[in-house]
Amino acid sequence: MASMSAQSPAGTPPTSEDVARAAGVSRATVSYVLNNTRGGRVSEATRERVREAARQLGYVPHAVARALRAGRSGVVLLTAPAVTAGPLFAQFFAELQSALSELGYTAVLYGPTGHRGAEAARRWAELRPDAVLSLMDDSLDEHAVDVLHRAGIGVVVSAGPAPVAGAHALVADQVQVGAMAVEHLVAVGRRKIGVIVPADVSLRGFAEPRLSGAETAARAHPSATVVRQELSLDEGAAAQWAELVVETRADGLFAYNDEYASVAVRALQDAGLRVPEDVAVVGADDLLIGRLLRPKLTTVRMDFTPAREIAAMLDRLIGAPDTPTEARSYLRTGLVIRESA
Amino acid sequence: MASMSAQSPAGTPPTSEDVARAAGVSRATVSYVLNNTRGGRVSEATRERVREAARQLGYVPHAVARALRAGRSGVVLLTAPAVTAGPLFAQFFAELQSALSELGYTAVLYGPTGHRGAEAARRWAELRPDAVLSLMDDSLDEHAVDVLHRAGIGVVVSAGPAPVAGAHALVADQVQVGAMAVEHLVAVGRRKIGVIVPADVSLRGFAEPRLSGAETAARAHPSATVVRQELSLDEGAAAQWAELVVETRADGLFAYNDEYASVAVRALQDAGLRVPEDVAVVGADDLLIGRLLRPKLTTVRMDFTPAREIAAMLDRLIGAPDTPTEARSYLRTGLVIRESA
DNA sequence: TTGAAAGCGGTACCAC
DNA sequence: GTGGTACCGCTTTCAA
């Protein structure tokens, strides 16, 4: 490492006052120049002097101070439980992040707080975000919404399976996913259908609605039955589970997502069952893994509302925080038929 | 939705002054009570009155104001290029987030700004984070570090393939990954080795070091050669790529990660080649898909330094910002031998 | 045991 | 054209 860069150990950073002094003007003028406020009310000569001084000193405005004065932080808080591990979420978050950033907001991701409801909401509220978008996070309940409103946060949006009283809602109808899968299984002649729910409890928020959609769909057909089965992404456990399937002679399977479906398919094959001949399998989320396995997985894909649109919606609501709560659907589902069912 | 909660459209939120008024004390006293400052210097009666007033009003402290006054924001800024860098990253981020949160920090994830170097750093600096942790983000260069230091941010850490002058470094030695893979391929008798680099340029920061490690390892063995091959996660492209492998008669393959390896294995099999007999394949990152594919993938797994340790390190550095820059390794690599090589 | 008041760094109104 | 100054909400000395 040749370069040294003097290891400047961060003295007191320059403030707008330092810039003012260096340029021989007032703090007010510095503010005007640096923010391009007041069209031509500052002479070009002064402007140049101010800008030069700022550059010299390495001045960077203090967003915290600005936020305090402005009464708005420019922060959009995204709350999410542990589900953040999923590939879909990561992708969505990245896009939302970037869309918000283009609109001048800072996206802050707030993971599990170890609290729920009002208690969690107090944590969020301390940051005084301009909006809270709660993604599949069941710690946002009615009390939480109330705390946020009372803390002056006008825009609260829940994105999840069900709306929350007092908040705008992006309804992600996970129920549809399960329904669509089971309808297809029934359509291809399957009657004894297993539904795989992840053992990982942090995924229950998604999993249970998918299950209940599956159950509802089955009820529509007299001879179809659905049985709930837990599975973890562990091959040992999967082998054991496969025995169960052999015993119960299930002929159809809907798995929580393509990862679980893949593990399941492997285990079934290892147990001597053929997919789809003996057991037809439908996954969900259209993940890469489903296209690589043989047979290729039939899956229910979800198309989320583009992050850009959601960012725009947040921006709009922040501009008009008294808009009555609205609810809209947040994803569309579609069946992708491949080889496994 | 029965309950109404008055849809309170966020009037002016209560401040500590409101609480003071309601409790019949001064703002100072409110602050003391709510922060448990000054051991027993406030009477129990007063404390109770203050707490009750705060509860009544739904008071939530204003973190922005607090940060301004305190001179530290409690924010740890994580910068990352494309967050999409894979499932490993998402997992790591979630853990770090939670570890920091336990230490009282707020983790803010800042995606690509559309700027690099000093310009990007100015964006980050505006938030006055207590620390900046730059994850595999090549927009952090020497100038950026300088901007951050001048803005009073004492703790700047780069986590990536190479250290950056002036910043602490968590060195993730991706080079080792490639080296380890190729050494194994050579050890099992392969000489003509293809290395798959993702076509997705956002992954280059990881991919190139892995490739160069592969090249170095090959040079250590006189008869071994390495040839770089681009591939995207698209089956059409993969089929075409497989033709190339058939022609060139490569007998070993190291793919960027297990996803790429899986796509590659599929394409090879579809082209009539046997794995590992004709072509031995090594992947990386030990992803789920590698265990589900047949043959099971041999892979190079990476064990990152636990997020908890990194959070602790950041906390320590924030407490002593003048610590001379230190560098430490950030991951350990290990070969997981399965069936594909 | 409690309160008055001086800031933290910016912004924007109003005066000159 | 430019500058003085009163805030934003909170913490923390110092004095009472």
Automatic annotation (TrEMBL), chains A, B:
<feature type="region of interest" description="Disordered">
    <location>
        <begin position="1"/>
        <end position="21"/>
    </location>
</feature>
<dbReference type="GO" id="GO:0003677">
    <property type="term" value="F:DNA binding"/>
</dbReference>
<protein>
    <submittedName>
        <fullName>LacI family DNA-binding transcriptional regulator</fullName>
    </submittedName>
</protein>
<feature type="compositionally biased region" description="Polar residues">
    <location>
        <begin position="1"/>
        <end position="15"/>
    </location>
</feature>
<keyword id="KW-0238">DNA-binding</keyword>
<dbReference type="InterPro" id="IPR046335">
    <property type="entry name" value="LacI/GalR-like_sensor"/>
</dbReference>
<dbReference type="Pfam" id="PF00356">
    <property type="entry name" value="LacI"/>
</dbReference>
<keyword id="KW-0805">Transcription regulation</keyword>
<dbReference type="Pfam" id="PF13377">
    <property type="entry name" value="Peripla_BP_3"/>
</dbReference>
<dbReference type="InterPro" id="IPR000843">
    <property type="entry name" value="HTH_LacI"/>
</dbReference>
<keyword id="KW-0804">Transcription</keyword>
<dbReference type="InterPro" id="IPR010982">
    <property type="entry name" value="Lambda_DNA-bd_dom_sf"/>
</dbReference>
<dbReference type="InterPro" id="IPR028082">
    <property type="entry name" value="Peripla_BP_I"/>
</dbReference>
<feature type="domain" description="HTH lacI-type">
    <location>
        <begin position="14"/>
        <end position="70"/>
    </location>
</feature>
